Amino acid sequence: MHLQSTKTLVNGVEMPRFGLGVYKMTEREETLQAIDTALKFGYRAIDTASLYGNEAEVGEAIRYSGIPREDIFVTTKVWNNDQGYDATLRAFEVSLKNLNMDYLDLYLTHWAVPETFEETYRAIERLYDEKLIRATGVSNHHEHHLEKILAKANTVPMVNQVELHPYLQQQPLSAFCREHQIAVTAWSPLGRGGVLHDPTIVELGQDIGKTAAQVVLRWHLQNDTLIIPKSVTPSRIKENAQIFDFVLTEAQMAKMATLNRDQRFGQHPDHFKFDF
User: Fold this and answer.
1) What is the pLDDT, as a whole number, of residue 58?
2) Which one from 23, 43, 52, 103 is the annotated catalytic residue?
3) Is 23 a catalytic residue?
4) Burial class, 114, CB count within 10 angstroms (exposed 0-12 / middle 13-18 / buried 19+)
């Protein structure tokens, strides 16, 4: 594996296994610099969302990079108060305009709003049928959400982006996704930094000569999880990607597997509440 390695989605589209998340990047120049640093270093995937308020900066940075649009995998998401069939189609048009692009590589339902997530995904299917997106997907969906979608969908979700890190390993959900050929992306793959002082992870890093963050990110890749670590710091953006010159042994992977606590640093998909 290398920085531009891809996972083949169920429809044959190649999705980078490693990308840059841009959550909470709200300062324009900082956002542009972070994306520019990542792309120059070799990142080829950017993950944003309408909620983040930086789709315009993502599009601008990609155009400025000089890298062909088709070489960069762009993901965005429909926010909760824009869900439902017609509303999702309208929200997509706004995102596409903000990004100043002709198509998106992946469009996700951000959270499974109980009353609307099925209709939201139906709209995403239509966007796929119309070739406005290259792949369909969801975010923060548990097995029971996916089962409802699978019961009606003509096109199975190709990606499910969820909170996943050593303290929340989501093994049953990951197994369900594997069974249905749904790729899993970890948002907050470092547990918002909450796992980086874990003694087991720190010790593994010392043994290997890598940082705790690099150990965790490598663990994700070896578990076939796609990752989108977020940083605005150029040195950290580069450091996060320097995980292709070592491999965790089976014994080291087994140690990592013992760390699960079912501990979330974000909200629970069945009990989420946002006041903004």
Assistant:
1) 98
2) 52
3) no
4) exposed
pLDDT in tens, 134-177: 999 999 999 999 999 999 999 999 999 999 999 999 999 999 99
What one-letter code names the amino acid at 195? V
| Ordered DSSP codes for 68-100 | -GGGSEEEEEE-GGG-SHHHHHHHHHHHHHHHT
> In sequence order, which residues have a C-beta less than 8 Å from that of residue 250 and are 6 or more positions away?
none
Nearest to 117 by CA among 144, 154, 155: 144
The overall pTM is greater than 0.90:
yes
Burial 157-170 (b: 16+ CB within 10 A, else e): bbbbbbbbbbbbbb
State pLDDT tens for residues 43-102. 999 999 999 999 999 999 999 999 999 999 999 999 999 999 999 999 999 999 999 999
pLDDT of residue 275: 76
Question: At 7, which helix (H) or strand (E)?
Answer: strand 6-8
Q: Would you kindly state where each structural domain of the chain is located, as residue ranges?
A: 6-257
- Structure tokens given for 182: 């749904």
Sheet with strand 104-109: strands edge to edge: 20-21, 45-47, 73-78, 104-109, 133-139, 159-163, 183-187, 226-227
Q: Which CATH superfamily is domain 6-257 in?
A: NADP-dependent oxidoreductase domain (3.20.20.100)
CA gap 110, 117 in Å, rounded: 9
